[in-house]
Design a protein that fits this description.
- Helix 4 crosses helix 7.
- The protein is mainly alpha-helical.
Length: 268
């Protein structure tokens, strides 16, 4: 492939639709699985993401850039965190695991959806990398929906776990900034690291944040960007709570009317 498919073209629209529909169907079919099974599935997703990332790093290093490393594809973006979190799930316990699971919906779902709606960075003139990008974000959608449909995960969605998930995000932003500083000026000439779009050396590529940076300065733009990520996470968290509150009300109503047996009622 020598030219990238156009944004909002047929390929983009069909691929994005499949990346929404297929994970939704898969996660819904797995909705009755227990917490242990879901944790193993999440770990498996982390393994698949790791293999995909290794292939991407190899492809960029050997095929695209002929043995020169491109720091801009270092695997530490917001959509990269699920790989690390899922792989480390067997090592988490208590509040840390709860926060990680909540993160996989609150801060992963909207990031994956936005990437599929506007996949400009994924529409490269290399078919393997195009497929990689769409498959990667389809897996992220599946991970978020697996958490969303998991009855065993519903009690985890409280303010304490949301704060824990937000701490994970802030720590990741700090690590991303350190990576940006350490890798600046290294690797392929003409590229630079921009993990989490928080590089302190270059103007951000994010549409709204770039306007803020031009008007109010780089630091203000970076702070505003991080606050926007947290706000979107809070909206996702509230959506989760409202969606399942309505579901729980239907269960209670059905039980009172004698439509649902006690073995299916979570409130008995």
């Amino acid at each position: 492939m020598t030219t990238a498919p156009p944004l909002f073209g047929t390929f983009h629209l069909v691929a994005s639709l499949l990346c929404f529909v297929l994970p939704l169907v898969a996660a819904y079919l797995l909705r009755k699985t227990g917490a242990g099974v879901r944790l193993r599935i999440l770990f498996g997703c982390g393994c698949v993401l790791l293999l995909l990332e290794l292939y991407k790093q190899w492809y960029f290093f050997t095929v695209i850039h002929d043995g020169i490393y491109d720091c801009s594809v270092f695997p530490f973006q917001q959509c990269s965190l699920p790989m690390y979190l899922c792989l480390l799930l067997p090592l988490y316990w208590g509040r840390v695991r709860n926060a990680a699971i909540v993160f996989l919906f609150d801060y992963v779902c909207y990031a994956a959806v936005l990437a599929l709606v506007y996949p400009e960075g994924m529409l490269r003139p290399y078919l393997p990398m195009i497929l990689h990008g769409f498959i990667w974000h389809a897996i992220l959608v599946f991970i978020a929906l697996l958490v969303f449909f998991g009855d065993a995960f519903h009690p985890l969605f409280n303010m304490r776990s949301f704060m824990g998930a937000t701490v994970i995000l802030l720590c990741a932003c700090l690590i991303a900034t350190v990576i940006n500083v350490l890798l600046e000026g290294k690797g392929l000439i003409g590229t630079y690291p921009d993990m989490f779009y928080l590089t302190p050396y270059h103007m951000t590529a994010q549409p709204v944040a770039s306007d803020i940076e031009a008007s109010f300065g780089r630091l203000t733009a970076r702070i505003t960007y991080v606050l926007a990520l947290i706000l979107l996470g809070a909206v996702s968290h509230m959506f989760f709570l409202l969606a399942h509150r309505r579901r729980n009300k239907r269960i209670i109503y059905g039980h009172r009317k004698g439509k649902i047996g006690c073995e299916k009622c979570e409130k008995c």
